[in-house]
Structure prediction request, 775 residues.
Amino acid sequence: MDYSKYIDPKVFLIGLMLSFAGLSAVGWLVTENNIFHDYHRSYNNISAETQYFPTARQLTALVRERLSGEKIAVVVAGSSVMRGAGQSKEDLWSSYLQKELGEKYVVLNLALNGGGPGGQALYLAEYMLRQHKKIIFISDASLAGVGIVQDNGPTYRYFFFDASERGISDKFEERMAEVSLRLKDSDFERLQELQIKSYLNDILNYDDLWTTVGYRYFFTVWTPLTAAKPWAARNEFLDAEPNCSEAKRYQNFLNEEMAIMRGFANPTPIPDEIAHVISTTIPEHVKPHTMFVLNSYSPFYVEKLSAEERQRYLSNIQNAEEKYNNLGIRTVTIAHNYTADDFCDRAHFSYTGGKKLAVSLAPHIRLKARMLGYE
Amino acid sequence: MIFMSYWFAVFAASFFVLYYCIPISAIRKSLILLSGLIFQVHFAGPAGVMPIALLGILTYIAGYFGSQWLIKTAIIGCISSLVFYKYTIFLATELIGIVSPELASEAVASLRLSFLPTAPPLAMSFFVFEFVHYLVDVLRGNKPIRSIADFGLFSLFWPSMVAGPIKRYEQFMPSIQEGCGQVASSDVTTGVIRIAIGLVKKFIADNLTLIIDYWVPQFDVAPTETRWLIFFGIGLRILLDFSGYSDMAIGFARMMGIRIPENFNWPYLAKGPIDFWHRWHISLSTWIRDYIYIPLGGSRSGMFRKVINGLFAFSLCGLWHGAGWNFLIWGVYHGVGIAVNNLWHESKANAYLRFDRVPVVLRSSISWFATLMFVMVGWLYFFFPVSKATHMLAVLIGLR
Prediction:
């Protein structure tokens, strides 16, 4: 078929180029302001888990809106534990932390399921530090030193390249080299695609436009988790995660969880290469602003260890805390005296545990603020 | 999917900027050739390019010198290469496996370790079919492509390299001469719109894939209406995916001012298996007709031979799509459908059943629906192992 019978070709082509340029400009404009007005934390429907990929510019707009004046930003990174899995939005531990800390502080929970210290929260903290904001960066950390990855793993890797290309994360050559080297060996094609994608998006802003349209008007990718309303705008999906059910706690996977506990009860020193991992994940000037949180696990499982295993497990926690502190990252251990009811499972806090976490952390954060000269 | 990668977006944008900025035919041809080489090296890797390059050189030389034995040798070489890369593992597993499954596993592991790549060279099936078409037509007396650069253009035309349409050099070479000489804005417009149509189809197909992949493992417990939606969704997905790709290939070519054959013509409106194959993957079905069915005798030796030739041709068509029993069965299934269609037309059953007295609209509707169901059932065998496809069919019609 010859479509030029119906459309003047020159007009069409000029219109196409103008539209393309126009959409690119719109993509830039729509991310000047925050669209996540009711943001408390990341959840399924606004995260990569359901094919929604918030861009670096969008989260920067969120951060700029929340952080005004001379407030001290507490940027929360890390895993589902810090994200508040098992807690409803109304009972979110980071909201309690905000209440504990008061108006001088702004708590921004940017933790992600499966995330770690490296990732969107860190890059945004770097951005805010360059804007001369007052920043305290906290993340959970593992006893065995795992889960610290420069680009936060395959699911969230897109953000690493997006933030880097956009100049939002620091220009940290060693970090980029580590990620590129790892991907060059394992998945060179994916590395190339991510590099090209972030380069093009920096110029054309199409990801910004697409995710804004997806959040506000309609979405374009079917996922099982959004199957009930696959094409609905993502702002129609609220953070409806409930508090974990008391009746269902500790019902499943006892053997698997105890196997993990016994793994932590064996001498599992944090490997020496953790120093290299941390030094290529967190820039040197960010380390003084950083605090790791080592969370003890649920006593439901700890008490099932033998006395000897329990002793080794507690010793491992202490060793991990020492090791991270020696690496220049202030580290505190929390949840020693919590009860089984304060947990939903081995690691995730229930809403009562989340409250306690907030209360436990607040003094450490204030101390950090004083050490940094913020108070 | 290659056309949906960022690398390709940069590649295509760079190509077209240069193509339009340099309106000199010879340079445009060089650009097409060079870009085709870059495209193939990038997506196939140097190891994937070598076998294609060797076959291409063999084909060109055989066509250039034109001797019968050389051309026939080249044809055998091309087909043998395809069998080697695509079917060795299947043959080793299925033939040796009949005698000894353990020996078959060892043979396969040994083949993979020693000299067989994990996947055949990219687009091997398409390259071989184009080379064989070229050689057979030269053998039949058509003029060969003398210039090695022109032959390279025919072989390494990146829009259709990976998944067709399968080109015929007699139509393609004049088209490329014309296109490289002058590209009208109407060509660019038509090409862009065609690409956009392809992209929309791909977008729908990709979403269908997500839905199908989610529901197929739960097919047994899914609600009845969902099962039927998935059943039709599988057929819709392959049409949109494949025809969308073809649209983009045709669109990119048209943006160069070059026309390549259409590949789909509303296949799900077909009113019989024969009609379906006049509308589905047209470049393949015509290739099968011209280079397998007709050389075997076609319909020239009576109904029995016609049926046998058709069955054989479609068995090969099925296997061409993949090395697996399900592909063979799918091909035979369509061969049987074609045979039944032929028999229906030629037998007296039509008149006996007074089918011609049925109102045209009703007759058309019945033919259309029966064909649609025939094709949709076939897709189950195309995409799933035989036992799974049969099980799904049984669940669908309530037998399980």
Observations:
- Chain B is about 75% helix and 0% strand.
- Chain B has a mean pLDDT of 91.
- The interface with chain A takes residues 5-7, 9-10, 184-186, 188-190, 192-193, 203, 207, 210-211, 214 of chain B (CB under 8 Å).
